[in-house]
Design a protein that fits this description.
Layout lengths: L2 E5 L5 H15 L13 H17 L3 E7 L4 E11 L4 E8 L8 H16 L3 E7 L3 H9 L3 E2 L7 E3 L2 E3 L1 E6 L1
């Protein structure tokens, strides 16, 4: 599948909201819930404006993963950018009907092609111990697994740990 990543724009708010609503239950199987308030239209609009402000300040970069028709397939972000250490933290999610098609792997490749122009030298990533698909995406894109956390937490009835990765 031919995909692209595009920086988040104000005009993406409506379609992004629909994407998040459609995939909420699926996402919450693998990541902690954003809470009910996140899905209230007025809260979502406010949060969208805040993300755009962060992006304009260079604190974070938010990209939408889209197909050739412009349909949102997922999101990929670099957040908490430290301009002194030139590091950023990676996050991504692909909609349920688009998983298993190499979209996350390709989107991450596209993002890694952009990091030098963003001034980032190291990317940190973290996933849950049960999210083997995400771990594979990171490894296939040259991320190295760092020391695992010993701290367990419970999510959806499972005892999990975070698994951390780094890319330079």
């Amino acid at each position: 599948m031919d995909i692209s990543i595009e920086k988040l724009k104000s005009t993406d708010q409506k379609n992004l909201y629909a994407f998040e609503l459609e995939n909420r239950a699926f996402f919450e199987e693998m990541v902690l819930s954003r809470g009910n308030d996140y899905y209230k239209p007025e809260i979502f609009r406010s949060r969208h404006r805040a993300l755009l402000a962060e992006q304009s300040e260079g604190i974070s970069y938010f990209y939408l993963i889209k197909d050739q028709e412009g349909t949102i397939l997922g999101r990929i972000n670099l957040v908490d950018i430290n301009k002194n250490s030139k590091t950023g933290h990676l996050g991504y999610r692909v909609g349920q009907q688009h998983t298993g098609k190499g979209i996350a792997k390709t989107a991450l490749q596209l993002l890694l092609e952009k990091v030098s122009e963003l001034g980032i030298k190291q990317i940190l990533a973290k996933t849950t111990s049960n999210n083997t698909a995400s771990q594979k995406v990171l490894k296939k894109n040259g991320f190295t697994q760092m020391e695992d956390s010993n701290d367990e937490f419970e999510m959806n009835g499972l005892k999990l740990k975070f698994v951390s990765y780094s890319w330079t």
